[in-house]
Amino acid sequence: MNKHGVLQRVSAITGIPQNKCEEVLKATAETIISELKSGNYVAFKNFGVFKVEHKSGMRGFNFATGEDVYIPERDVPVFQAGKAFKERVVNDV
What we know:
The protein is an alpha+beta fold. The chain has two domains: 1-37; 41-93, IHF-like DNA-binding proteins (HU Protein, Chain A, Irregular). The chain contains three helices and five strands; from the N terminus they run H-H-E-E-E-E-E-H. It has helices at 3-14, 18-37, 83-91, and strands at 42-44, 48-55, 58-62, 67-71, 74-81. The strands form two sheets. A three-stranded antiparallel β-sheet has the order 1-2-5. A two-stranded antiparallel sheet has the order 3-4. The longest helix is centred in the first third of the chain and has 20 residues, at 18-37. It is elongated and about 55 Å long. The chain starts with a helix and ends with a helix. 0% of the residues are buried.
């Protein structure tokens, strides 16, 4: 399912027009991004946590050229699913 499909489903469930649902989705995404950039995390109870994790630099291998390459350290956004979220997905509760 893509963004358009999500907006259609949320609109049908809530009765809120799709354009308003899109505004809320955009504002939510921007808020999460802003908080992660500020070094914070965003947690939704029974859903999960959005956070930034630091990945150390490491050696890698380029299979096309056969050369060793260095992958620099970096920060990456991560979503960690909550227990209730995982259980609903796996157990179809």
